[in-house]
């Protein structure tokens, strides 16, 4: 019953609370670590999603992929879709790249390249391609393509403008959205448009946006299903207790709802918001406070019921209070919410019991467990299993337990991982001070990468050092700025390139500025929040270790995310024993007996034993949800 009403409450209370209901994953990490993850994910380079088509016949699949390519390119949420060799989505990047050609290369014999481009323009081509070629007369786009291909992370063939794995029979379209996942949802509706009720040639998608939307869709679907089941369960519970003559017990539900609601309000006032997971898990914890109501109904004229409830509340609060000092914001917020909810619920039950005593009375249930030698066998077995679980069961606290993946998505991720040419990349951020400093720093990375033969994506790949730029610009200025020299830019036959020539006129031949507001289009993917990103691309673990030893601040995004179980395990190793010790001390003061105090932990140990049995039977791992269960069990099992 507890589980049913907390889920019903959460599903309806949470869905209408978009302003203060937090959903981001930064709550899993200490502030310093969370800010680093958020910082790295602010770079467009980490936003790529991949739309993947499984096919049986390639010609038909290519037709389907061509239609999908057009849909993606016309999607306002898509900045770039790499398909059909259409460079229209790269237009601003190519134009920006071409304008800075004088910064990257010396001018030798421009007429050869210009004449070649003139010949190309005489051939039939689409209007947008014609305009792009006019704005890049020296064909600098080839250099940009070479840089991109050298740093490709996928070993796929290019066929008819698409990336294809002929063995796995898959077509891939890389897509760069216009905003990060927390600001944009577009994958679900795009997949719906692409698939359009087809029974074959089904599109799938993987990536940060795709993963976030799939999880959100599944959560909403689960909440809708479970809230319906929980509502039916609540109605069934009410009907049963009414038929059995315990109709007043149904009134323990509203005070618990009130406690959860007030606890949530207090948490929001304290933290500014409340996370969806906190509201979910916390409501489950607070839901266990129905014991207070049951004691009140069945012990109307006895203080022993409230004595038991008070001790149960105190031991629970001790456990929650100790864990509220966690570095992990999720646990900290969860503990505050649970503490407030328990206190509110207890006080509501207490005052209602004395304000309306006639409502709080039910006949005692005449049921006692029979005493027999066999009765001690089950607790003994559970204690043995508890010891077994403590020795052999190892916690699995990874965050991927919260990452839902459908069957098709799992298949795509497994294939995609095998299709990579590199190990997971390492990210290294540098604060921007001056353009010269950031380029010199990046140049040092490139020199180190050249010596170790490790690939790197950094701003130096696109922008030469300041001295190099000045040397290159000098050759252009000699041809463009001298009044006595007949510049190639003034020859009538090259008038078709006039717009480009104006962009590299004498007054514009200056070093590249990388300060905010002046960053070239082709470098945007490496800049965010006044920082510059360097991406190391190791081919194997050995290269990754070499990078880490030389650049300790370079980190894998996966390693940052996986730090959650390490932090949690370290904290639980300290906080759980402290909680047990404090609870034992309180019990010792209360009972004045070591044996009685130790006996009160038998329900808790039995719960651990039962958890171990379930883990063995169903092959469960000791997950984060189990941790929450043990927190509930430790505090609340004492009053049993």
Q: Can you give a write-up of this model?
A:
With 640 residues, this protein is of the alpha+beta class. It contains 26 helices and twelve strands. Strands 2, 3, 4, 5, 6 and 7 form a six-stranded antiparallel beta sheet that branches. A hairpin with a 2-residue loop joins strand 4 and strand 5. Helix 1 (2-15) packs across helix 10. The radius of gyration is 33 Å and the shape is elongated. Mean pLDDT is 82; it is low at 1-18.
Chain-wise SSE layout:
Elements: H1 2-15, E1 21-22, H2 31-40, E2 49-54, H3 58-73, E3 78-81, H4 91-99, H5 101-104, H6 110-121, H7 127-134, H8 141-150, E4 157-159, E5 162-165, E6 170-177, H9 187-195, E7 203-206, H10 208-243, H11 253-271, E8 274-275, H12 276-287, H13 290-298, H14 303-323, H15 329-355, H16 377-392, H17 407-418, E9 426-431, H18 435-452, E10 455-457, H19 466-480, H20 498-503, E11 527-528, E12 531-537, H21 541-550, H22 557-561, H23 563-591, H24 594-599, H25 602-618, H26 624-636
- The residue fraction in helices comes out at 55-70%
- List the total number of helices: 26
Low-confidence stretches: 1-18
Overall shape: it is elongated
Overall average residue pLDDT:
82
Quick gist of this model?
The chain is α+β, with helices and mostly antiparallel strands and 640 residues long. It has a domain at 2-25 and 212-400 and 563-636.
